[in-house]
Amino acid sequence: MSTAHQRRSGLRRAGTRIRKVVAAVAVGAVTAGGLVAAAGTASAQTTLGDAAAAQGRYFGTAVAVDRLGEPDYTATLNREFNSITAENSWKWESLQPSPGYFDFSTADRIAEHARQQGMELRGHTLVWHSQLPSWVENIGSADELRAVMRNHITTVMEHYKGQVRSWDVVNEAFEDGNSGARRNSVFQRVLGDSWIEEAFWIAREADPNATLCYNDYNTDAWNTAKTQAVYNMVADFVSRGVPIDCVGFQAHFNSGNPVPENYHITLQNFADLGVEVQLTELDIAGSGASQAEQYAGVTLACLAVPQCTGITVWGVTDKYSWRAEDTPLLFDGNYNPKQAYYAVLETLGGSGGGGGGDGACTVTYEETERWGDRFNGRVTVRAGDEAISSWSTTVTVHPPQRISATWNGDPSWDASGNVMTMRSNSGLPAGGQTSFGFTVMANGNWTAPILGSCVAS
Ligand code: G3I
Fold first, then answer.
1. Are 28 and 294 in contact (CB under 8 A)?
2. For the purposes of burial, counting CB atoms within 10 Å of the CB of 73, is it exposed (0-12), middle (13-18) or buried (19 or more)?
3. N or C: which terminal CB in the chain sees fewer CB atoms within 10 Å?
4. Which residues line ligand 1 at a C-beta cut-off of 6 Å?
5. pLDDT value, residue 16
6. Where are the domains of the chain?
7. Atom of ligand 1 nearest to the CA of 322
8. How, if at all, do strands 83-86 and 120-128 pair?
9. Alpha carbon of 407 to those of 116, 244, 378, 436, 447: distances in Å?
């Protein structure tokens, strides 16, 4: 049996196990909280983004700008995710390294990628004690720090106005441990307790349509001091009309901070205050079925809470994770989908997945050129580790878009004219690749087309 066959049958076995796991977690959710979560409706979504969208949610990832030149990184990103958070390049030290000097050049590459791919953006993060330049840390005057905070929030939010769905306005303002106290940051020391709400008022003024979030970690288990402290702050803000719309749960899990059994209860309690909840930096240390089970549980917790609008994992591949040694993500270092990937996909109601289609070939899309009324797209088809004698895939445009020209392939169309099937009988050697291209008349809609799976024979 070939390696590819072994991998595919291994994945099928994993899938069967995951279905059982998901069912078990669903039962847990029902008994624990009286909630019935809809896991696994029969649908054919084969990517995380599409499966989440079918559940009315987004599925995003943190992106490191430097990795966008790596074809497998970008292919996996573009195929699986429909929301992006900049892992580092939107932080204060990157955007305003010295007083009044703003540099958006790297950050804009993230925004441009999201725009080209029709993905949403999460803004991370406006005010945080870490990755903060020393010139800010050294400010001792309240008037000066207040003006500096206002200038940073306003300049950054206005730069991206209308492009960012949600902003982490304030990040990690509470201490770890059992004190429930505010973290001793320069903002807390110099401005006192009011600095957090001041930041939210400034943010609302800068982009009134963005969803404004408070974002933190170790806020997952309901009864801990930190969770309670954040909850009390949000409750207070809501009762006094401070403009907070959302709470971000970073969701970095490991054996010291395991996924709580009743995670959906924490999420629901916050949501009941009248805010959206989002899982903003999800990663879970571990491997195999145990990691997959925890990922399924977290996904199910989000699905169980109507106000949980989306999940972002903190990176595309284990090899570039901020804690790579924990292998905490959904794709391994070679971009192979892990058991955890299938667990999430199936919990979202999707199936198949992994970008493989039938496992023998994969397809990736990129926009190559754009004019005032149209854009060109290119689809790259890659064979797996065996030769294939034919391949096909679909490209679906969003009406009123129209495909006006194609090259390097023989297209056929469905009755609506929106779904183009591209087929080739010339085959590919093991590991070989080819591409085809097309022009889309935008007619006002610049969303990237939806790429189907690759099917080979
Ligand atoms: O870019 C420099 C490189 O030039 C230099 O050679 C190298 C040497 O150390 O450092 C590189 O910068 C590193 C940067 O990541 C980019 O890789 C920084 O040292 C390193 O501190 C930084 O770590 C980031 C960390 O935030 C900083 O606090 C992680 O990538 C990033 O994943 C992590 O993300 C945070 C969220 O923003 C907030 N929640 C927690 C989460 C995980 O810590």
1. no
2. buried
3. N
4. 87-88, 130-131, 250, 281, 322
5. 38
6. 48-348, 361-456
7. 32
8. parallel
9. 21, 50, 10, 6, 21
- Tell me which fold the domain 361-456 belongs to: Immunoglobulin-like (2.60.40)
Q: Letter for the amino acid at 110? A: I
Tokens of 83: 């929301």
**Does the pLDDT at position 24 exceed 50?**
no
The rounded Å distance from CA 322 to ligand 1 centre is: 7
Residue 285 pLDDT greater than 70, yes or no: yes
pLDDT tens track for 306-340: 999 999 999 999 999 999 999 999 999 999 999 99
Known catalytic membership, residue 70: no
Q: How far away, in angstroms, is 37 Cα from ligand 1 center? A: 36
- Do 48-348 and 361-456 come out as alike in CATH topology? no
120 catalytic per annotation: no
Could you tell which of 63, 87, 126, 257 is best to mutate to test the pocket of ligand 1, judged by most ligand atoms within 8 Å of the CB? 87
Contacts 24+ apart (CB under 8 A), 13-17: 14/289, 14/292, 14/339, 14/342, 15/342, 15/346, 17/289, 17/292, 17/339
- Beta-bridged to residue 127, according to DSSP, are 170
Percentage of the chain modeled with pLDDT above 70: 89
Architecture of domain 48-348: Alpha-Beta Barrel (3.20)
Pairing of strands 455-456, 419-424: unpaired
